[in-house]
Amino acid sequence: KNEVEQSPQNLTAQEGEFITINCSYSVGISALHWLQQHPGGGIVSLFMLSSGKKKHGRLIATINIQEKHSSLHITASHPRDSAVYICATHSYDKVIFGPGTSLSVIP
Amino acid sequence: KAGVTQTPRYLIKTRGQQVTLSCSPISGHRSVSWYQQTPGQGLQFLFEYFSETQRNKGNFPGRFSGRQFSNSRSEMNVSTLELGDSALYLCASSIKTGRSSSYEQYFGPGTRLTVT
Q1: A90 at B interface, C-beta within 8 A
Q2: Which of residues 18-37 of A touch B (CB under 8 A)?
Q3: B2 pLDDT tier (thresholds 50, 70, 90)
Q4: Burial level of A101, CB count in 10 A (0-12/13-18/19+)?
Q5: Is B50 an 8 Å CB contact of chain A?
Q6: Helix or strand or coil: residue A81?
Q7: N or C: lower Cβ tally within 10 Å for chain A?
Q8: In this complex, is the C-beta atom of A88 within 8 Å of any C-beta atom belonging to chain B?
């Protein structure tokens, strides 16, 4: 069983839709990291959170430590949001990445 | 402020050779992490350095090593290259944002290594 799982694996949305990407993990962590990777492009760190919720522009990330679950929400999605979204768990001695969710937003 | 830079950007090596990749973090960042990304395994953590000391190491063989210099620049070395080492190697520099487990991380563009 993968230690970090993401769902869905692939997601196609119409421009303007509200999008949710889920991340679940099986071990205790100190923080959870959401990353964005554009095709052929580099990786951008979106959020690092250890509790509650964080918001930046149209992006919102939440985490439930007890349920070992985090969600990344995109409001009013736009084609430029098309990318792979990756969650990663940080614990004392290691970082484990999820497999990523490939998002395509259609105009 | 300049971002994280990695050199070289592309590299082709032959099986059995060794390679050294370089990473210059954002000025003022003392933590540098290295990651490997492949289509099959996705992103995997290699190691983290802070103030010239290796803090954490991922599950990679001893052929993978790294170091950090006093100016926070970091290098990683892979010896006796294997075909499976072909990957995008990413470096990221980090700075704490005040809370114990919260920090900002910035990724470099990566070095694309091809082993033939």
Answers
A1: yes
A2: 30-31, 33, 35
A3: confident
A4: buried
A5: no
A6: helix
A7: N
A8: yes
Judge: B45–A86 Cβ closer than 8 Å, yes or no.
no
What are the 10-residue block averages of pLDDT along chain A, 107 residues in total?
88 97 92 92 90 94 95 97 96 90 97
Nearest to A23 by CA among A46, A56, A57: A46
Residues 6 or more apart from A81 whose CB is under 8 A from it? A19, A58, A74, A103, A105
- Structural tokens at position A55: 């918001």
Partners of B68 in the β-ladder:
B74
Assigned token pair, B66: 């790294």
Collect all residues with Cβ–Cβ distance below 8 Å to B62 and sequence separation of at least 6: none
